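User: Could you check the structure of this?
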Amino acid sequence: MLFCTYNIHYGVGADGKYDVARIADAVAEAHIVCLQEAVSGWPQNDHADQTSEIAARLNRYSVYHGAMEADASTVGPDGRIANRRRSFGNAIVSRWPILWSRGVMLPKTRLANLFDLQRGYVEAVIAVPSGPLRVYSTHLSHVGAQQRLPQVAALMDAVNRAPVIGGTWDTAAGATFMFQEPAPAVPASAIVAGDFNFTPSHPEYPLVCGTPRHHGRIATAEHLTDTWIAAGNSEEEVDSFPREGRIDHVFVTHDLAPRVKSARIGHGINASDHWPVFVEFDL
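Assistant: Sure, the predicted structure tokens are below.
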């Protein structure tokens, strides 16, 4: 299975051109793709739903959650209101059915002097042929550790408490009109990916992967494995965002670490201001 995470920068490439089709083409070989900075309903691109466009071009299943959301309605000459919402968020695009999903808001503290916006993540369970797989697509604050540390804590708590939280419904509702299905699966195996806006040298990284020790890290059962390292690469010495370092990550629960075959960054793919990260799994 080929997995990809990609911050698509609203469909605007490193050349300043808007082209969602080349985003889709850049990730076409991947079976599951996590997207960040996807938008929907903005007048600047004729109210495009970028996730739907990408999914349609690739003939894939998809789910989108706009953590930042606001009005984009218009009123016609006849006074009729065209209800529209504009949003900015994360998505998952999959070759296999997305059995259930939910969009979740991450903690946010209002800033007095810098731009930031509401962040969140999409949690989904995908019907991978080898068995259901939990996948998270997330994007943390770009401002700094002050904003990101509470977000990391909330995300890790959700990942680790998933069996306790459960899916989007519990048990069957009996002989009611709706909700007659049994509770959905919440698999133990998970991939947590996205634009985290931190590198392994930042204080947020140990909260995910454990504290440094000699040539490795002390990782508990509640930490995750960095697939870049599991594939045999070093923690640093590479960028996923030009001049900012490796800030786009694919983390996994420890049971998936031995399944990592390779990891690479799509340097030279200029469909966004970030480069996509690809991880191949033996599933």
